[in-house]
Amino acid sequence: MEDLRAAEQVTRVTTLLAAVVAFTVAVIPPLAWYGIATEYHSGRLDAELRAKSFVIEQIIARNPVHWRWETERLTSILSDPVVTVHLDRHDIVDAAGEIVATAFDRLIDFQEDPLPKPLMHRSLPLLRSDAVVGEVHSTYSLRNLLYQTAAMAVLGLLLGAGTFFVFRFLPMRALRQSLNKVTYLANHDPLTGLPNRALFADRLERTIAHLDRSQDNAAVLFLDLDHFKDVNDTLGHAVGDLLLKQVCERLQFCLRKTDTLARFGGDEFAIIQVGLEQSDAAAMLAQRLTNALRHPFDLDGHEVTIGLSVGIALLDGSTQVPGDLLRQADLALYRAKQDGRGTFRFFEEEMNERLLERKALERDLRRAVDEEQFELHYQPQIDLRTGSVTGVEALLRWRHPTRGLVSPANFVPLAEETGLIMTIGEWALRRACTEARGWATLQLGVNLSPAQFRNPGLSGMIARVLAETGFAPHRLELEITEGLLLRDTDATLATLQTIRAQGVRIVMDDFGTGYSSLSYLRKFPFDKVKIDGSFIRDLETSENATAIVRAVIALCHTLGMRANAEGVESLVQANRLLAEGCQEVQGFHFGRPLPASELWACIGASGRPAPGPSAERAA
């Protein structure tokens, strides 16, 4: 809107300037010519009269009595002007006012007043001994000058029109081109050339207005690329931009000319699908889109495979607000991501309820950070060979005033999305180091969120907490997941090396559940590897699970790493792990996570789990 107002203002100013310049070119030169020529002819006529008067006065002086009868001689003087003049008349009049001689220049058919107007008159007295004996009258027609001025005026008008065109239309053409370019840039994505969010919203409003007048149906599809950030982080932004361009080509190939594809920024896209003849047309399009992006991309020699998640909101012809439709499609997209990515979901009203619940949970989480509603529970880690407690793992809990004890699975992902995990993670590390400082030589395990590694000051924060609490660095074990190593591998490994240089031990948690790669164990020498509990649960029923656990334990022994089995819930599992050579376990069979005040009642003074079925030692 501001651009349009500025363009209108520039148009008005340009038009005014062009009109002023054109008027000046068309009017001023003819007027100036007429004025200058008039002065020129006036001066010329005056000079001619003085010359004629001088000759005539000599004739009068030689023949003062009979000079009036020298008509032929006087006429000859009048007819032979010093300067050639056209369309003029010269008269000699005596003292009584009688015409003595008359001469015309180039006049045919003498009449009473033969000279065409406008006229210029001049007269000069004839003297003899300072006495006036007559006059010389000259009349000059300016008709030819008017013709010349008129011809110049016509030429001036043509030049003025040309000037107006040059000063008005050519700049406006350039301005229009510039405005078109600015408007295009303001409404399109510079990388892909697709409509941006502003143009998409405008077209969505038009679509809604059309649906209000017809019985057609339409749909809004929200698209998000799966694992696009991994491509940017590992291969660079230039390759990421190339991927986006190829993605646009594939998406457009799946659309009709009547559909609108827009890029909202990053890896977010949106589509307006109009003219839905079938009820499942939106689902069919979403399926085509996800299938099109499943095939690998060739990016300057790099083969990359990504996915696509789609959220769909339907327009049914009733009045709907564009913002609400986009929000509904976004909610459906969020559900598609939660359900495993690479798929599509339609908006359902319950998604609004979940959004409201999420907003409420976010408000409560921020209040919990301010009021420190969090607490730590500790789960013992047991040496299978001796049965003694070698360490504890600190587990975060949120005790909400009305919700009760909230599971970390419900609030940690939200804390990572909102950035609150930075504050919560530092609080948890400081509290754990403070509470475990006096627990003899027990190792303390604390989980680090992948989101915390986005903070470049992570290693500095850990060093500061250790210094403030006085906790021995060699007793601290920081646990990370495999997924962390997928992003910024070099930067992540450098941060891990910096932390380890402080004397802190690094543990790989949940090994085997995500993007497991033995190259991680080769790139970074972890101090401990924790085998995920999903493999431990199947030890009693699955030979494959037993083989995997055996292989991981053997690999850890070979690489000099300690193996820890999580989720041990029975004596049979504990015995099998002991037979496979696993050094350390933790799970409900040996002790549930407890607050620090209750932990020692479970462990006992001997440093072993207290007697009872939950603490039964593996034989």
Please explain how this structure is put together.
By secondary structure, the protein is α/β, with parallel strands linked by helices. It has three domains: 144 residues, Beta-Lactamase (2-Layer Sandwich); 151 residues, Alpha-Beta Plaits (2-Layer Sandwich); 244 residues, EAL domain (TIM Barrel, Alpha-Beta Barrel). 49% of the residues lie in helices and 21% in strands. The protein has 18 helices and 21 strands. The chain has an eight-stranded mixed barrel with strand order 12-13-15-16-17-18-19-20, surrounded by five helices. Strands 6-7-5-10-11 form a five-stranded mixed sheet, with helices on both faces. A hairpin with a 4-residue loop joins strand 1 and strand 2.
Provide a short characterization of the protein structure.
The chain has 619 residues and is of the alpha/beta class. It contains 18 helices and 21 strands. The protein has helices at 2-62, 71-79, 143-187, 197-213, 228-235, 237-253, 281-292, 322-338, 349-371, 408-418, 421-436, 458-469, 489-500, 518-523, 533-537, 543-559, 571-579, 596-603; strands at residues 88-94, 99-105, 119-128, 131-141, 218-226, 260-265, 268-274, 297-299, 302-304, 307-315, 344-346, 374-383, 389-400, 404-406, 443-447, 476-481, 505-511, 528-531, 562-565, 584-585, 594-595.
Summarize the SSE layout with pairings.
Blueprint: H1 2-62, H2 71-79, E1 88-94, E2 99-105, E3 119-128, E4 131-141, H3 143-187, H4 197-213, E5 218-226, H5 228-235, H6 237-253, E6 260-265, E7 268-274, H7 281-292, E8 297-299, E9 302-304, E10 307-315, H8 322-338, E11 344-346, H9 349-371, E12 374-383, E13 389-400, E14 404-406, H10 408-418, H11 421-436, E15 443-447, H12 458-469, E16 476-481, H13 489-500, E17 505-511, H14 518-523, E18 528-531, H15 533-537, H16 543-559, E19 562-565, H17 571-579, E20 584-585, E21 594-595, H18 596-603
Parallel strand pairs: 10-11, 13-15, 15-16, 16-17, 17-18, 18-19, 19-20
Antiparallel strand pairs: 1-2, 1-4, 3-4, 5-7, 5-10, 6-7, 8-9, 12-13, 12-20, 12-21, 13-14
Helix pairs in contact: 1-3, 5-6, 9-10, 11-12, 12-13
